[in-house]
Amino acid sequence: MSKIQGSAFQLKVWNYLKKIPKGKVCTYGDIAEYIGTKGSARTVGYAMNNSHSKDVPAHRVVNRKGLLTGKHHFDGTNLMQQLLESEGIEVIENQIQNLDSVYWDPTKEL
DNA sequence: TTTCTGACTCGAA
DNA sequence: CTTCGAGCCAGAA
To answer: Would residue A108 count as lying in a domain?
Structure first.
C-alpha cells in the first residue's frame, strides 16, 4: 500500500485530492481555501511535488482557467493531458474544455 | 533568523 | 492579444 505522510498541510491537500471523483478536476485556490489557508494556492502546488510518489492524482488539479499548469512536472509533454482524457475530460492545448462540466465544487457536492 | 523559490491568482497597462 | 507587478503562504538553504 502507499504511504501517505508529510506535513499537516500536505496531508490536507492530498486528502482533498483523493476525494475528487474520477472525471472531475479542481483548482489550487479552492483547495487552499478549503483546507483553511485561503490565498495559498501556490503552496498547494508546492505540496504536489511531494505527491509525485504518492497516490495523489495531481493531474486532477488545474489552475483557475482550467489550464494544465502542472503538466511540465509530469513525464513527457502530454502525460497529464492523457490522464485527464482517460477520465473523460476533454483537453485541448493544455486547457480543459467544458470546465464547468468537469469542475468538482466541494461546496456544492458536500 | 532572513532570503529565495514556486504546479497561483488578480488586476492593470 | 501579451506582459508585468503585487499579494499570498509553505518549505528549503
So the answer is: no
Strand C and A41 CB separated by under 7 Å? yes
If phi > 0 it is left, if psi is from -120 to 50 it is alpha, else beta; for residue A80 that is: alpha
**Contact positions of strand B to protein Cβ (< 7 A):** 6-10
Please give the single-letter amino acid code of residue A35: I
Helix and strand element counts for chain A (H, E)? 6, 4
A45 touches strand B (CB under 7 A): yes
A18-60 tens-digit pLDDT:
999 999 999 999 999 888 888 889 999 989 988 887 889 999 9
Locate the DSSP E strands across chain A. Answer: 26-27, 61-62, 91-92, 95-96
Split into its structural domains, chain A has a count of 1
